[in-house]
Design goal:
The chain is of the alpha+beta class. It has helices at residues 26-48, 96-111, 147-160, and strands spanning 62-72, 78-82, 87-91, 119-124, 129-132, 139-141.
Length: 161
Amino acid sequence: MTTDPNTAPPRTPGFKREDRNDMIPMPLIKGMFALALASLVLVTGAVLTDRPLVATPTDGAIAAEYNIVLIGHDAQAVTVMDDTGRVVADLAHGGFITVIENGLQRKRMLHGVSIEKPLRIVAFENGRLSAIDAYTDYRVELGAFGNENKAAFERLLQKLN
């Protein structure tokens, strides 16, 4: 007769754990789903009722306006030209300027507009700087992404003068 050294009965897996110390509390999970559902209901209601946008900056008096063309070459490189076709900057690592070009290129692709059309950069008297596309509804407040990113466009605009 052979004896089994394991005297404990075989373990059968179960769906519930006995040790519940490291699990997320059920009220917290229900609260997270309720928050997601409430957000979805609010956004759906705003879209269906055509609620106007709020908290958008008001346009002030225009201090200066520039037309530039942004041509992207890959994920990071971008060439910036003025509206006459003169190359203002050829940036191998365009940083934030490349981000704006990528967003503009995507929006224009969706609307069937050529990327070679100019983009308006508007400097307002109150210090705001905006990129506004006349061919789509693309508009970016360049200062909303931080002073360094706004400064990248301000340096670019100095080269246009």
